[in-house]
Amino acid sequence: MSNNKKLGNDFESRFCEILYSEGFWVHNLAQNSAGQPADVIAARNGKTYLIDCKVCSNRGFALSRMEENQDLSMELWKDTGNGDGWFAILLPGGQIYMIPHFVIKAMRNSQSSMSEAEIHECGTPLYKWMKKK
What we know:
Elements: H1 3-21, E1 25-28, E2 40-44, E3 47-55, E4 60-62, H2 68-79, E5 86-90, E6 96-100, H3 101-108, E7 113-115, H4 116-122, E8 124-125, H5 126-132
Parallel strand pairs: 3-5
Antiparallel strand pairs: 1-2, 2-3, 4-7, 5-6, 6-8
Protein name: Holliday junction resolvase
Transmembrane segments: 85-104
Organism: Lacrimispora defluvii
């Protein structure tokens, strides 16, 4: 397994443990050969969240990392009444920020990446996101 794949898998597992410890029902979707449109489905208080986990090791997030199947699936998720899809972004130093799909999509129309400062500005720290959900 490549180091990047291991980092991603480790983050997904840790992310699920954090959500579970805060009272979410959580399912980590197993990656199959066809690929999955997201990594995690989480639910709490009658709401369900489709979440893709991304590790940023270079102080930014390349917007091209949102794959077409993720974009289309998150659009359909919202269109069928499930709310926004989310990206959980792990920054160097261990901070996790939640960014809604529509923000990633809008930014991708005008730039190729998000800086760490833009992630802080456009995202919500995980602990604040969980309190709202």
